[in-house]
Design brief:
- By secondary structure, the chain is α/β, with parallel strands linked by helices.
- It has 2 domains: 3-223, Rossmann fold (3-Layer(aba) Sandwich), CATH 3.40.50; 226-306, Alpha-Beta Plaits, CATH 3.30.70.100.
- Helix content is 33%, strand content 28%.
- The chain has 10 helices and 14 strands.
- The chain has helices spanning 44-51, 73-78, 95-105, 112-121, 137-149, 167-182, 194-200, 218-225, 271-281, 296-306, and strands at residues 3-13, 19-29, 33-37, 59-64, 67-68, 80-83, 155-159, 186-190, 203-208, 211-217, 228-234, 250-252, 258-263, 286-293.
- A hairpin with a 2-residue loop joins strand 9 (203-208) and strand 10 (211-217).
- Helix 3 (95-105) runs parallel beside helix 5 (137-149).
- The longest helix is centred in the middle third of the chain and has 16 residues, at 167-182.
- The chain starts with a strand and ends with a helix.
């Protein structure tokens, strides 16, 4: 079975009448890193909460490695680790006792070696005997991750795991995620740091207003929706774009000293070479050129705006 999570027709309407999710269909592949992106209130946390068994869907079905999250909730839940947004821990308990207790909740035998491995990976080993109330906010965030990994889940949900934390934790977090993927763990993350999704994810899903806008391989998404920019630094400023170049999608800087060609590499009219030939035919000289392309964040913002 290549898909470890199957979400079919999942909707959620709260008692207030607010519809948070509208017929979500999604599959997540075994061993991949899947990034779920969306603005605040888009439905990301609601969807994660349904898969993790915290919130019940109004309709639809969710399967985790072949186990229905309602009828087979015990087996499904044992496969899942969740790192929530909120810092919810027992302030008076020690780090070691907390992760040990979490492992025990899933009926697993004690494994000091596994817990030590997790705590060391998250730079918590030296704090293992400390009470949680004495930890900094960043350390508490690390502890949430350790708790989620205590029972050796095969699916790990990270709901805004690095929001408001220091650079060191973000670095440790992504090193750990890379290592977990190497061990075959499937990782689903939501994040406001879209550059992290661009760097880490295999596939990307965009959700907005409770609807799944699209799901693509990251490389395909960048290629399909991305725009490239070729900027020419002109030898002599232009007052306006020449009529001979009006067929191209061009932008002229305020001082007329830079001409930018926006294009999709798949269907540019004559390619970059053809465009540059036309520029020379128009008698325009340039002293330098450079290219850039859309980031995942650019594409995300564009998709969300289209759906507003």
């Amino acid at each position: 079975m290549n898909d470890i999570i199957e979400i079919s027709g999942v909707s959620k309407t709260y008692a207030s009448g607010f519809t948070a999710l509208k017929g979500i269909d999604l599959t997540v592949r075994r061993g991949e890193i899947f990034a779920l992106l969306g603005p605040n209130g888009a439905g990301k946390t609601t969807l994660i909460s349904i898969v993790c068994g915290i919130v019940r869907a109004s309709s639809g079905r969710v399967m985790v490695d072949g186990h229905d999250i309602v009828s087979g909730w015990r087996k499904a839940r044992a496969l899942i680790g969740l790192v929530p947004q909120e810092l919810t821990t027992d302030a008076f308990e020690s780090v070691w006792n907390t992760v040990s207790f979490t492992r025990g909740l899933f009926g697993l035998r004690a494994s000091p070696a596994h817990l030590e491995k997790v705590l060391r990976a998250l730079s918590l080993w030296d704090k293992r005997n400390s009470r949680i109330m004495t930890l900094s906010g960043g350390m508490k965030r690390r502890l949430l991750i350790a708790k989620a990994l205590a029972h050796e889940p095969r699916v790990l949900f990270l709901d805004e795991p690095t929001a408001g934390v220091d650079v060191d934790l973000r670095h440790d977090m992504w090193q750990l995620v890379s290592r977990l993927r190497g061990e075959g763990v499937t990782v689903i993350l939501t994040t406001h740091y879209i550059e992290e999704a661009e760097e880490m994810a295999d596939r990307v899903g965009v959700i907005n207003n409770g609807e799944l806008v699209l799901v693509r391989e990251k490389a395909d998404l960048l290629r399909e929706f991305g725009t490239k920019r070729l900027s020419l630094r002109l030898r002599r400023p232009l007052a306006e774009v020449p009529e001979a170049l009006s067929a191209w999608r061009l932008e002229l800087s305020g001082d007329g000293g830079e001409l930018t060609y926006l294009y999709d590499a798949r269907d540019a009219r004559d390619g970059v070479g053809g465009f540059l030939d036309r520029v020379r035919d128009a008698g325009i000289e340039f002293t330098d050129l450079g290219t850039t392309e859309s980031s995942l964040e650019d594409i995300f913002v564009s998709l969300v705006r289209q759906r507003q």
